[in-house]
């Protein structure tokens, strides 16, 4: 730990005043391009436009089931609330955090992005404004306080950005992942609240065909939540696909270790189809006492510049894909649901615990 960071950590009082409320209005995260430009122009003058203020862009990961969503709420533990508290302990004054994407309770993030404005005030000479902290110092210090809390949020990257760089409005696209674990076996304790457990077998090829119907520029009214405040349900879904991956946490079996050591391809000489499970799937194998059968793991990837209300659109899309995978719906039914333009036509929504905000793309300065 650097001397500057050590001095900052040692000299901060444990007491702090209430957080300042977020200045972002409670509308959807996911506006059209025109709506985003209009709201950005209407934003009040940023405090980072004053001398001595540095705006930082933070990439964060968190376990969504530990929070009542990402956005600040009264009497609820939220991602923004925990982050603002950690910053307050670091710099000794309240801050306001602005997120690129607001996630619902139970939704995880591999990399959500926020920005925050920080003024570094001298502890020895109150009122004296010092040079801003380096991003690496901010990362280490904030993580120090986050880990002293519950440790379910972590800052994974920090960058200094100009005063007019907004985490929400500068986002060029967002990528979400959804995990489904298929198999009759009960879900592992290590996977609890990390995926949607589907006891039935899933038809990967059928799900992939259904994705082709949904990808592209459409009216997504059939996948729009009742509380959605977006002016238009029309969105462009740049990517929607389903793939089968190795179930995690995954520790290799003796067979897999032997194959890896020998450099053998377990499917060499076979006509492996897209729907065949990966070699790590051992649902039908006799593993011996004390060894757990692994589920088949499917990941739905959804990528777009903007989604509708709080990712409900993604969870409704996954609900339809799952129904196609189990055979409850056919691919033509997906087109019928899309064209119905009413949310009552869609299948039940997938649970929040399987959804992950994977990446937010920017053209960084």
From TrEMBL:
<protein>
    <recommendedName>
        <fullName>tRNA pseudouridine synthase</fullName>
        <ecNumber>5.4.99.12</ecNumber>
    </recommendedName>
</protein>
<dbReference type="InterPro" id="IPR020095">
    <property type="entry name" value="PsdUridine_synth_TruA_C"/>
</dbReference>
<feature type="region of interest" description="Disordered">
    <location>
        <begin position="1"/>
        <end position="50"/>
    </location>
</feature>
<dbReference type="Pfam" id="PF01416">
    <property type="entry name" value="PseudoU_synth_1"/>
</dbReference>
<dbReference type="GO" id="GO:0031119">
    <property type="term" value="P:tRNA pseudouridine synthesis"/>
</dbReference>
<dbReference type="GO" id="GO:0160147">
    <property type="term" value="F:tRNA pseudouridine(38-40) synthase activity"/>
</dbReference>
<dbReference type="GO" id="GO:0003723">
    <property type="term" value="F:RNA binding"/>
</dbReference>
<dbReference type="InterPro" id="IPR020097">
    <property type="entry name" value="PsdUridine_synth_TruA_a/b_dom"/>
</dbReference>
<keyword id="KW-0413">Isomerase</keyword>
<feature type="domain" description="Pseudouridine synthase I TruA alpha/beta">
    <location>
        <begin position="59"/>
        <end position="169"/>
    </location>
</feature>
<dbReference type="GO" id="GO:0009982">
    <property type="term" value="F:pseudouridine synthase activity"/>
</dbReference>
<feature type="domain" description="Pseudouridine synthase I TruA alpha/beta">
    <location>
        <begin position="210"/>
        <end position="363"/>
    </location>
</feature>
<dbReference type="InterPro" id="IPR001406">
    <property type="entry name" value="PsdUridine_synth_TruA"/>
</dbReference>
<keyword id="KW-0819">tRNA processing</keyword>
<dbReference type="InterPro" id="IPR020094">
    <property type="entry name" value="TruA/RsuA/RluB/E/F_N"/>
</dbReference>
<feature type="region of interest" description="Disordered">
    <location>
        <begin position="259"/>
        <end position="286"/>
    </location>
</feature>
<dbReference type="InterPro" id="IPR020103">
    <property type="entry name" value="PsdUridine_synth_cat_dom_sf"/>
</dbReference>
<comment type="similarity">
    <text>Belongs to the tRNA pseudouridine synthase TruA family.</text>
</comment>
């Amino acid at each position: 730990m650097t001397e500057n960071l050590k001095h900052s950590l040692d000299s901060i009082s444990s007491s702090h005043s209430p957080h300042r409320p977020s200045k972002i209005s409670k509308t959807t995260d996911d506006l059209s391009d025109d709506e985003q430009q209009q709201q950005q122009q209407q934003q009040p003058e940023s405090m980072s436009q004053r001398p001595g203020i540095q705006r930082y862009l933070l990439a964060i990961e968190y376990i969504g089931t530990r929070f009542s969503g990402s956005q600040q709420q009264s009497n609820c533990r939220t991602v923004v609330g925990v982050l603002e508290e950690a910053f307050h302990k670091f710099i000794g004054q309240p801050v306001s955090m602005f997120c690129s994407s607001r996630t619902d309770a139970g939704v995880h993030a591999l990399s959500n992005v926020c920005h925050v404005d920080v003024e570094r005030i001298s502890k020895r000479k109150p009122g004296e404004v010092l040079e801003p902290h380096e991003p690496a110092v901010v990362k280490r210090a904030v993580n120090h306080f986050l880990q002293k809390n519950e440790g379910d949020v972590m800052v994974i990257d920090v960058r200094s950005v100009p005063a007019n760089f907004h985490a929400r409005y500068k986002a060029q696209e967002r990528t979400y992942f959804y995990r489904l674990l298929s198999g009759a076996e009960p879900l592992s304790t290590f996977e609890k609240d990390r995926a949607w457990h589907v006891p039935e077998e899933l038809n990967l090829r059928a799900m992939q065909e259904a994705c082709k119907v949904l990808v592209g520029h459409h009216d997504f009214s059939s996948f729009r939540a009742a509380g959605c405040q977006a002016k238009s349900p029309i969105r462009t879904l740049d990517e929607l696909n389903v793939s089968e991956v190795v179930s995690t946490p995954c520790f290799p079996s003796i067979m897999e270790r032997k194959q890896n050591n020998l450099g053998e391809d377990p499917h060499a000489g076979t006509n492996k189809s897209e729907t065949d499970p990966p070699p790590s799937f051992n649902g039908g194998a006799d593993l011996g006492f004390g060894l757990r059968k692994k589920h088949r793991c499917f990941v739905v990837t959804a990528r777009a510049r903007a989604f509708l209300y709080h990712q409900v659109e993604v969870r409704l899309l996954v609900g339809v894909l799952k129904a196609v995978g189990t055979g409850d719906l056919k691919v033509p039914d997906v087109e019928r649901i899309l064209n119905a333009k009413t949310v009552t036509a869609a299948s039940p929504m997938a649970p929040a615990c399987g959804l992950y905000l994977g990446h937010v793309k920017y053209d960084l300065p």
